[in-house]
């Protein structure tokens, strides 16, 4: 169980996240929704430990994971992987190396610095890439891939951590509708097949409704909705998104033109 107890993040006198208490069941697929600035990213960053709450605490399986330092914090990072909107891959490195960096918390530093990955780690990385239909891209530079391919590499890298939770911060915000479906299907697969808890910040209400078994709606840092997607009525959704309601209800935006699209012959592969 991931438990948040009165979690708060103040920036100056302003609360980005305000007294949030939640119990998230292991193996669930939770969508965090709300308008821009509602506190979604801050909430995920606090769960992962990239930011420390100014109030309250976060527990995983009964153990406090907020306020950790040093090795304990690094161990929590390994169990709680993060996927970002902009993929955060090393664009000049090949796909296989990017994927292997997910093992950094499992191998001695000198081995990773020298690129001395074990045969087992390499096999694991190939298996992860194969699972997401991108093993044929293993030798390509990550920066040459399409957005959808890069996000699948980022998810493969996250899996290499052998995490219990994946936190995805707007993972589809830079993708076109087709890649949006591929990436969301990938997250749904690892949630369903591996039992990994997925907490996903989403701007699109339609996508959140389609994929998540539970929605948490934030407004000005506070939880204003918490329940199954089917319980979120149109009026509540409109109140949650305010003037962004039309955009949130629509299908996701078109992918931004990418440098990679022109350069990479593999773009057509998705
Ligand atoms: N490092 C920071 N310093 C000061 N204020 C911050 C910081 N990070 C976030 N905020 C503020 O906290 C509030 C919540 O931001 P956050 O990024 O969590 O929202 P969000 O719901 O993820 O928005 P978006 O969908 O636009 O990414 C915003 O008002 C933002 O300006």
Would you give an account of this structure?
One of its GO terms (molecular function) is ATP binding. Keywords: ATP-binding, Cell membrane, Membrane, Nucleotide-binding, Translocase, Transport. InterPro entries: AAA+_ATPase (IPR003593), ABC_transporter-like_ATP-bd (IPR003439), ABC_transporter-like_CS (IPR017871), ABC_transpr_PhnC (IPR012693), MetN_ABC_transporter-like (IPR050086), P-loop_NTPase (IPR027417). Pfam families: ABC_tran. This protein is of the alpha/beta class and 270 residues long. The chain has one domain: P-loop containing nucleotide triphosphate hydrolases (Rossmann fold), CATH 3.40.50.300. 37% of the residues lie in helices and 23% in strands. The protein contains eleven helices and ten strands. It starts with a strand and ends in a 7-residue tail after the last helix. The C terminus is likely disordered. The structure holds adenosine-5'-triphosphate. Adenosine-5'-triphosphate binds next to helix 1.
CATH domain fold name = Rossmann fold
Low-confidence stretches: 253-270
Number of helices: 11
- Provide the residue-averaged pLDDT: 87
Q: State the distance separating the first and last CA atoms.
A: 35 Å
Number of strands: 10
Tally the structural domains: 1
Q: What's the CATH first level?
A: Alpha Beta
Helix content: 25-40%
Q: Strand-residue fraction?
A: 15-25%
The biggest sheet, with number of strands, parallel, antiparallel or mixed sense and barrel status, is:
6 strands, mixed
Topology order in helix (H) and strand (E) letters: EEEHEEHEHHHHEHEHEEHHH
Coarse structural class: alpha/beta
CATH superfamily: P-loop containing nucleotide triphosphate hydrolases
Ligands present: adenosine-5'-triphosphate
Domain ABC transporter: 2-245
Protein name: Phosphonate ABC transporter ATP-binding protein
Pfam families: ABC_tran
Biased composition (Low complexity): 247-259
């Amino acid at each position: 169980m991931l438990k948040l107890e009165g979690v708060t993040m103040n920036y100056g006198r302003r609360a980005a996240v305000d007294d949030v208490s939640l119990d998230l069941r292991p193996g669930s697929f939770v969508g965090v929704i709300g308008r821009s600035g509602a506190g979604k990213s801050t909430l995920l960053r606090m769960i992962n430990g990239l930011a420390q709450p100014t109030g309250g605490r976060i527990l995983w399986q009964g153990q406090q994971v907020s306020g950790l330092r040093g090795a304990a914090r690094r161990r929590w990072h390994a169990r709680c992987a993060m996927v970002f909107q902009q993929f955060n891959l090393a664009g000049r490195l090949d796909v296989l190396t990017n994927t292997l960096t997910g093992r950094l918390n499992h191998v001695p530093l000198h081995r990773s610095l020298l690129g001395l990955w074990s045969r087992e780690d390499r096999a694991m990385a190939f298996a992860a890439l194969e699972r997401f239909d991108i093993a044929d891209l293993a030798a390509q530079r990550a920066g040459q891939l399409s957005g959808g391919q890069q996000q699948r590499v980022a998810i493969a890298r996250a899996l290499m951590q052998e995490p219990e939770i994946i936190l995805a911060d707007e993972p589809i915000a830079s993708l076109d509708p087709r890649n949006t479906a591929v990436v969301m299907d990938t997250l749904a697969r690892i949630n369903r097949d591996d039992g990994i808890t997925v907490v996903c910040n989403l701007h699109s209400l339609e996508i959140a409704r389609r994929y998540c078994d539970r929605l948490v709606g934030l407004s000005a840092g506070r939880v204003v909705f918490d329940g199954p997607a089917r319980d979120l009525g149109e009026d509540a959704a409109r109140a949650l998104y305010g003037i962004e309601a039309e955009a949130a209800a629509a299908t996701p935006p078109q992918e931004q033109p990418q440098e990679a699209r022109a350069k990479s012959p593999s773009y057509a592969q998705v």
